[in-house]
Amino acid sequence: VDENDQRLLNKLNEIGYQHLSELSFGTQIIEVGNLILRQ
Predict the structure, then answer these.
(1) Is the dihedral of CA 26, 32, 38, 39 positive or negative?
(2) Roughly how many angstroms between the first and final C-alpha of the chain, as a whole number?
(3) Between the N and C ends of the chain, which has fewer C-beta atoms within 10 Å?
(4) Could you give the CA distance from residue 27 to residue 21 in angstroms, rounded to a whole number?
(5) pTM
């Protein structure tokens, strides 16, 4: 697994899939991207 992909998966786990499932796919990408950039 690519290191960036692993970080993304870790972030998804932290946020919780339930929360993400309520958002559109595009919004998910933006939210996760912002979380990664904040690190």
Answers:
(1) negative
(2) 20
(3) C
(4) 10
(5) 0.35
Q: How far apart are CA 22 and CA 1, in angstroms?
A: 26
The rounded distance, in Å, linking the Cα atoms of 22 and 28 is 9
| CA–CA separation, 30 and 25 (whole Å) | 9
Domain positions in the chain are 3-38
For all residues of the chain together, what is the average pLDDT? Answer: 78
Q: Are 36 and 11 in contact (CB under 8 A)?
A: yes
CA–CA separation, 24 and 4 (whole Å) = 21
